[in-house]
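Forwarding the complex inputs:
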Amino acid sequence: MPTGSTQLSILALSHIPMINRGDDLGNIILDGLIADGFQLEAGDVIILAQKIVSKAEGRVVDLTTVTPSPKAVELAHTVDKDPRLVELILRESSEVVRTRKGVLIVAHKLGFILANAGIDHSNVDQGGKDKEDMNQEENILLLPEDPDTSCQKIRDTLTTATGIDIPVMIIDSIGRAWRNGTVGISIGISGLPGVIDLRGEPDLAGTPLQTSELGYADEVAAAASLMMGQGNEGCPVIVMRGLPYGRRNGHASELIRPREMDLFR
Amino acid sequence: MPTGSTQLSILALSHIPMINRGDDLGNIILDGLIADGFQLEAGDVIILAQKIVSKAEGRVVDLTTVTPSPKAVELAHTVDKDPRLVELILRESSEVVRTRKGVLIVAHKLGFILANAGIDHSNVDQGGKDKEDMNQEENILLLPEDPDTSCQKIRDTLTTATGIDIPVMIIDSIGRAWRNGTVGISIGISGLPGVIDLRGEPDLAGTPLQTSELGYADEVAAAASLMMGQGNEGCPVIVMRGLPYGRRNGHASELIRPREMDLFR
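Prediction (whole assembly, two chains):
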């Protein structure tokens, strides 16, 4: 491709190992970059899948250790899910938004509206060193407790090692109200804007723009998600080079519509 | 960047002229590629902004020619919008989903749930050759009538000219129920899947994936939107090289959740 300021390159690192509790993601990324022969430059951004951040931060819960409350048992019956899983979903949430058989949509304590409070079963390695133990565990992963701070820590490690300020984002995949299929969204940010306000900027014909706010970090997240793959393919760390728009110390909460502006809760 | 199968490159063409009714977008793209010194290869995909497709297809309406119905006048009062604009929104829609001062969310006849039936004022050139006429027009743009077919036609032109089958997508920017900022979504597809079904594929730990369907075309759209810019920047044609997943003759309608599965209408 011809290169220039209007080109974005998105690369999935190919040497990221399985992540375990306590792993230092910043240094694992630095090793992965070296293994791929990739040198970070000013303007590069690192994007991580939520799962590896949750694993590194020990956000694994063994379902066999969870005792569901009566409320969870009742709701589990309505939505036809494991009562222990529903118990964890309720603990992670501030509000139940919609229920239907097979569907439990909540407001996560972090503000995101999503199914099952972002908890999932998939790609959770069984953790224990004892194979026999492993078979008796049913591990699930919660979202990181404070994803913006998780990003900040990784950004600090990368900056210290390289001398370049490298913004970091954590993404997850969510469903949408009216569209099929999941898409990547940003759940943690350090060093990038969440939304970009375009209000008042004239368009090509000089008319002030109607559509005023760009969901910048979510578009970055969707682009990264495309290259992470799902299932077997698992490439949980992405490097982007050539992202447009300036930098700013944004927050994932910028992307969350305030309760009072919500027409659909 | 090191190149390989895990890299996606997204390039905004820099020589696309202002588009007018009747323009042949396929040939304009071919000229733009030449002007940028870019040669299409197998695997490349072209993504267009909805606005230029609507313009080329003459989907411009002069608001001064529109007489609002009593229903439109009443609704315009509720949502505090121009009654002529509301009249056009209603003509383009099958159902009004939510109203509030400044907000009119509908189901477009094509199935998409979006604000103002996807109609906007911005970046509509005034069309007429007579400058004096232009000042009396208030032009708006409707969505293309059949975006999948629009894509197919452009794809045919590109394939005929290059001998390579080049998938084509049309995207628009929409708001979301619970998140701030607009993101690109796919409203027309030819030669790519809309959604990708991952059900049953084992993940890294061998557990069948819970999150079963990937909103593939919408992730591609968001990535493209990032490089199109908004407002002044206007780069309405994007080339992607290195998109993952196989090809299929998908439809934008795959991404629309069926009415009976909709928990939020």
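Chain B touches chain A through 87 residues (CB under 8 Å).
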